[in-house]
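Record passed on underneath.
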Amino acid sequence: MKRDDLPSLLLLPFPPDPSSRPLLNAAYRPPITAALSKLKNPNGASKLTVAVACPVLQGPYLRSKTLSWPQAEALIAGIYAIISIVSAELQINTEIDGGPNSVDATVVLIDHGRDKRFTSDFRPAIEPNNTIILDLATFATAYHPWKHIFHVRSEAGLGLYQTYLRFAEGRQTLLQDQLVPVEGGLTMNEQPSSPPQTSTYPTICLGGTFDYLHPGHKLLLTAGAFLLNLPRKDEGKPPARYIIGITGDSLLKNKKHAEFVQAWSVRARNVIVFLSRLLQLSERGWKDGLDPQIEELGEGDLRASFRNGTIQVQCVRIEDPFGPTITVQDIDALVVSGETREGGKAVNDKRVEQGWKVLEVFEVDVLDADEIREDEKEEVKRGFETKISSSEIRERRALAGGRGLGTKI
């Protein structure tokens, strides 16, 4: 694989506590701006993984970890909001296959506390820990090689960077120009809180259009993945199932600029490609390629398996507001956005009519420019909307005459 085709990595040290949107902006906007500026390329698209180190998991055992879903989801939402704002300022496209001057960013959380350091007896282990969130050692072992590694110039940033490099030793030969220091922001930390932990579930479902997969979609898909309860590979249990209902083409005919709506197959494959960045786990990293193995089991039914078959992702075509939630009985939880809150209630009403159990409903934060900084310029706020709205992305592509659509797979 050519170096220019590889994704880059931005290592972000511990977030402020509490992780409010303004405090996250003060801490992370400078390094995110520096990385996106470096990766913006008029001749092609770039990929960036933003890895945030924080002690997000609790539990005494490697394989029995839990997390606070509201805390993890809010942190991811805050960072995607910053990415969208900065992309608006720099005129960077954010969607998958965004063409020239685009940066396709993925935010991941890395379970790593301030007191964790590299030790001489460390042996990397590719192990599931009951959640999709990895510790720093496993992440360094399973995710490589990188085009660039950006690290923050601060005491915490340097400590994280040095520990990461020790864990990653021998995985990739890095040239000096691939290691890029960037300025950090201001971080204020109080005594870390210990929020209540969230139950995880064997089967999670959510739905959407997922046209031109953008930061709002990425937040929704990541938040759902956080709720998966991963079985141990030696337990003999069925895989954790992540079912994503994706609106069929026939329901999108009346959308604005409908001629630029991506085909269902493209949208479904982009969902699985994005999720693979959160779910793949292999000591070989990307030596076998970046794209996951996807099975087409029927018309409007794509599937992929990850982590030795312990996770199954299924994308199904939906032609009504309910999708698989009223055709698959053994779903445990439903993830919704603020705009589809009422849909969650309707789903449960329908399941009750069928004599099925109601689903636990989890609502994902809205990406909002106003919560980042009150003095944000109006043109930046308008640009922000174009980064998190499929209709705005179609509008932009229509005005560009359809150039660089990137919809062929």
Notes: Residues 403-409 have pLDDT under 50 and may be disordered.
